[in-house]
Write a structure and sequence with these properties.
alpha/beta; Rossmann fold; four-stranded parallel sheet; 4 strands; 45% helix; elongated; binds magnesium ion; TPP_enzyme_TPP-bd
Length: 163
């Protein structure tokens, strides 16, 4: 899998129609294909797309400079920060339903609303703190960072392509 995979996969699963897809996608990954929402609306496919809106490419930040997550004085790398999109406006532009959740109870309510939609997708904006990162990332990506990231960085690749 790669970044943005879950959006396209949701469309495929929704077309297959066996079950209703529910995707939890990072805000960076969502930018790989937000037009999927338009296709879901066009074909009345009731996928639930939850955008984990924390305004950062968190995994990349963690792999490059994990100290950001443990030290409140650290700033994120500028290339990992994301502008927080107006997901309500984006959903409206595509004709999709929208909900916003800043708490677990609001997420419960948004998912309850989503369950009632049978012929329409919904985009749920799950608002998180910029330093929120799944614990599984801390345990898996942490073992690889930062040495593995540096070893596989762009510069050595470019040296191989352009001698
Ligand atoms: Mg993010």
């Amino acid at each position: 899998m790669s970044i943005g995979y879950s959006l396209g996969a949701s469309l495929g699963a929704a077309c297959a129609g066996a079950r209703r897809p529910v995707a939890f996608v990072g805000d960076a990954a969502f930018r790989e294909g937000p037009q999927v929402l338009s296709t879901l609306v066009q074909y009345k496919l009731p996928a639930v797309i939850c955008v984990m809106n924390n305004g950062i490419m968190g995994i990349q930040q963690f792999m490059g400079h994990p100290q950001y997550y443990d030290n409140a004085q650290c700033q994120p790398d500028y290339y990992n920060t994301l502008m927080r999109w107006d997901y309500r406006a984006l959903a409206q532009a595509f004709g999709a339903r929208h909900a916003r959740a800043k708490t677990l109870s609001e997420l419960d309510e948004a998912l309850r609303q989503a369950a009632e939609l049978t012929a329409s997708p919904i985009l749920i904006d799950v608002v998180l703190d910029e330093r929120d990162i799944p614990s599984v990332i801390r345990h898996t990506a942490g073992r690889a960072a930062p040495g593995a990231v540096q070893a596989n960085s762009e510069a050595p690749l470019l040296r191989r392509i352009v001698p």
